[in-house]
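Slide 14.
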Amino acid sequence: MVVAIGAILTALVFLRLGDWRSPDDPRMQLERLAALIERQCEQAMFQSRPRGIRITESGYDFWQATSQGWVALAPEGLDRPRSWAAEQGPELLVEGHGVDLAREPDGPQLACQPLGELTLFEIMLRDQTGRHRLVGNGSGRLAVTSTAVHQ
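Slide 15: predicted structure.
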C-alpha cells in the first residue's frame, strides 16, 4: 500500500513538473499520456473496476466501466480530457491493428483491468525531428521511444 501511494505521488509530481518543455513537444505529450495511463491503471486496481482511454484525432479522454457500460470520467482534475498539439494527429494500433481515428468511437479503445492487464497498443506522433511512440504491453508496462528523421 505504501509503494502504491508513493507511485501515485510520484506520478502527480511528474505531471506537475512535466510542463518545462514546450507543450507541443510530441515526446512530452506521450510521456504525459503514459503517466496518465499509469494513473488510470492504478485506479482500476484500487477500485476493482476497469478504466479506459479513448484516443481520437483531436485528443484523449478517460472512462470507467460501470454496470451500465463505459462512462466518461468528470471533465476536470487529472481525469479531464486532453488535446493533441494543433499540428499533431496520432496514429493508433490496438493489438496490432490500425484504428481509424477519423471515426470517433463511443467508448475507449484501451482498457486497464483491475489485475494489471492493459490492452496492447502503440500510439505514434510525428514531427520534423522524427517519430515518437508510446507502446503499452499486456502486463501494463509503458515505454516512450523516439526515432530521429534521417536527412
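Speaker note: The first strand starts at residue 51 and ends at 55.
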